[in-house]
User: Fold this.
Amino acid sequence: MTQKEKPKKSLSREVLSWLSLLVMAVVIALPVRAYLFEPIKVDGQSMCNTLQDGEVVIMTKPGVLLGHLNRGDVVICRFPGRSKSTTIKLGAVLDIETVGSTLFVKRLVALPGDAVAVQDGLLYVNDALVDEDYVDYPSWADYPRQVLGEDEYMVMGDNRASSHDSRARDVGPITRDMIVGHASLVVLPLDQIRVIR
Assistant:
């Protein structure tokens, strides 16, 4: 009997050890994901040819948390009215409501107070032509000159001919709290690893 009891104790210790390791990993992963970085999969063609559909990018968050946003940054953002709410029923007493948002990868083209326009497929910020050598597919439609408010940011996809972005009426300029992070590095597929510019 003594020999059979020892394996039970070591098995329970082993399970406890694995469980504590799992809890420790979650405790470390949550703040890393919330404040440092997380992987995001590109879905769609709106950032071609800078980013391709299906690529996995690392989104870094410290720069955005510290307010470091510049024209030309590739950012991960949310759009107005694109939140998803899910309620998880755990019984009469405990229901958990989770709110998530669809994330978009776009280029930050204008900051608060900037005047922005698209004419003949070319971007103008503060009435000066912006050199955008990363745009292979220019816009087919003009966007009339607009001056952004004090908490308004303009984002556009690099594939201007096929991007749903701040030019659309149902999106418009976004606010600072809708910008989640910077798209910094492509990590998958492995043969396409590169810094995002």
User: Anything to note?
Assistant: Residues 115 and 127 are 7 Å apart (CA to CA).
